[in-house]
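hey m, so remember when u said the tokens were messed up on ur end? i reran from scratch. heres the input so u can diff it against urs
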Amino acid sequence: MKRFLLSMLLLGFMAQPALAIRIKDIASFDGVRDNQLVGYGLVVGLNGSGDSDQTKFPVQSLVNVLERMGVTVNRVDIKVKNLAAVMVTAVLAPFAKQGATMDVLVSSLGDATSLSGGTLLLSPLKGGDGQVYAVAQGAVSTNAFSYGGQAASAQKNHPTAGRVPGGGLVEREIPNVLVDRSTLKLNLHQPDFTTANRISKAINDKFKTVLASNIDPGSVLLVIPPDYKGRTVEFVADLERLEVTPDNPAKVVLNERTGTIVIGDKVRISTVAISHGNLTLYIKETPEVSQPTPFSNTGSTQVVPRTSIKVNDNADGARLAVVEAGANIGEVVRALNSLGVTPRDLIGIMQAIKASGALNAELVII
């Protein structure tokens, strides 16, 4: 019951009037985005927790590295346990300059048991176009350990994936998409006709001229004014601080696995009567053993099943609550709270209200 009251308290905060949000928090400019990088690398210096001989590609990679350094070896002669092959991933921020650093993630590819204490060798990181945009190298931090013997083992967290803080170095810059532009396009994170129109109106009111026009519910086309020619960054800075009130659709989100319910403040319910009762069934098995008396010439031991069943139908405690048409989230919560329902009960009630056609909102089950 305490969990339910806490959930209702959180829903009460959601019922407050909608506040204005900065444009930079609900939209982003076309082309200004992160870029995913990926590469292949080797982690060395492991304490016997690297890939086994059954994983062939780490040894082959080591042979290639040694040959590039002028050391010629025979692959069949190499047997190491301090080496692990990993995939290296990173996110290249927009406008990252050459020489800037970033964190990279390393994840084991083979059967290594731990990357703790290892060092990532210089690894190129490529973008979706196949070009190398960064390189990565450095000590791997896993915040985990994995030790064990033949009969027991101990492990903390996830030792086969780690991070190299500041290990990535930008070598190639992403082209600047804001240079020499006469127009910009603003993309909404959640497309909506009303929100897009409000953004256009706020921009036009700010600059006292028609600069913004709606292309579709997900985009706003902007014309850079003559006063800001050559000062695109300043124009964007003045624009993204403007505040608008998003108009989000009415939704009820249910998570049946965790019992979480999130109800938006725009959710409305038509007139409906709700009754909720609980049926609890207790079944207990207590088998008894029947066997012949000592020194008996006949008879055998038998297991006699004994089952006790108790049914608790809490129909007497069930009450009928009426929710009037157009009720807001606060009224809905109070009506359902009067029935003494739990979060998991509320999931079933919401589904039933939706099935009856009284829920004027989208029901999302995750």
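this time it looks ok to me. Residues 35-170 form one domain. if urs says something different then somethings off w ur setup not the seq
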